[in-house]
Amino acid sequence: MLYINEQNILKVGIDWTSLIHVIADTVHCINNNDVVQPIKPYLRFRNLKNRIIAMPAFVGGNFNSAGIKWIASYPDNIEKGVPRAHSLVILNDVDTGQPLAIINTPLLSIIRTISISGLVLKWFDKKKSLTDVKLGIIGWGPIGQYHLRMCAAVLGERLSEVYLYDLNKSIDVSQIDCVDQSKVRIVSSWEEAYSVADVFITCTVSNNRYINKKPVDGSLHLNVSLRDYDSSTYEYFKEAIIVDNWEEVCRENTDIEQFHLNNGLSKEGAFSLVDVIINDALKNHDFNKPVMFNPMGLAAFDIAVGRYYFEKSCEMKEGIELL
Predict the structure, then answer these.
(1) Pairing outcome for strands 184-186 and 220-222
(2) How confident is the model over 46-51, as a mean pLDDT?
(3) Are residues 159 and 207 in the same domain?
(4) What is the CATH number of the domain that holds 218?
(5) Domain shared by 303 and 289, yes or no
(6) Are residues 261 and 130 part of one domain?
């Protein structure tokens, strides 16, 4: 069994093009009914804002992998100088059940999350042929920082301006090395970023919805943190709301659940990744109107990305063999 930590992942490297392909291939497995992933349970105790989530899955195709992610999310850790999330992924041999790898780092979960956003961004780019892109990111923790890295890799010189805002921390532009620092604007409110962003990404730990304004025409909204948009914004997004999985995301007080309860959004009124990536369900959408993507996070993607890093680690002789 191979033990892989964050340093091993970083030595293997983060190739966004390859990782987005991993996510796309997993979406094809979902479409082919070659994925098994039970609805994930949430373990809560004492402080109910904290949660530990079990995410088992089998992914077929070229991955042919089974395993589980066990991830703890403690939002108040930020105030203690401790990472919010702690995550393990265990991979098993599909024929014998023998454990193949333990991947001990929340970085894998971060990479998975951003790679899914990357797939949607590339799809949106294909539909709109993006140029002169203004990017807004709200929340400057690891999720926000890695989203900027991915967007810089996907958009390249077409990324013209970056607007960053964090409610609780200062942002040091001198530490940003993935884009020309002259393109970066540190703003004093979310509205400053939201009002100009062609691509707007929420990466917060907010439990209080605050976004209540009309978005930029034709913008893409990657609602990664899921609890930022007031239900009043539903009217702007209702024609193009994308989810990774309806049953997963329409719960736990997400914006999608609130759209469902307050605005009547149904499963039939939303689009899945299979719908848009494979079946081109939004081919007739007016892309002068905004698009919103809401990812709860699927275990299949964690297992597929875990398999990618397991194979790369074996090739590069990274990690520690455990008896």
Answers:
(1) unpaired
(2) 92
(3) yes
(4) 3.40.50.720
(5) no
(6) yes
Confidence of residue 304 (pLDDT cuts 50, 70, 90): very high
Torsion, Cα 269 302 62 6, to 10 degrees, reads: 150
Show Cβ contacts of residue 243 under 8 Å, excluding neighbours closer than 6 positions. Answer: 249, 250, 256, 270, 271, 272, 273, 293, 294, 295, 296
CATH of the domain at 68: 3.30.1780.10
Do β-strands 85-92 and 99-104 pair in parallel, antiparallel, or remain unpaired? Answer: antiparallel
pLDDT of residue 7: 98
H and E: helices and strands count for the chain: 10, 16
Two structure tokens written together for 126: 């294909």
Mean pLDDT score, 27-36: 98
Rounded to the nearest integer, the mean pLDDT of the chain is: 96
Same domain? For 101 and 140 the reply is no
Mark whether 286 and 266 lie in a shared domain.
yes
* Residue 254 pLDDT > 80: yes
Query: How many domains is the chain partitioned into structurally?
Result: 2
pLDDT at 108 over 90: yes
Per DSSP, 175 falls in state G
Q: How far apart are CA 236 and CA 264, in angstroms?
A: 14
Q: Which domain holds residue 197?
A: 115-294
**3-class secondary structure, 250:** coil
State whether 166 and 245 are in the same domain.
yes
Would you tell me how many other CB atoms lie within 10 Å of the CB of residue 62?
Answer: 12
Task: Compute the residue count for the chain.
Answer: 323
Provide the token pair at 234. 């539903």
Closest C-alpha to 117, from 223, 195, 198, 194 = 223
pLDDT of residue 85: 87
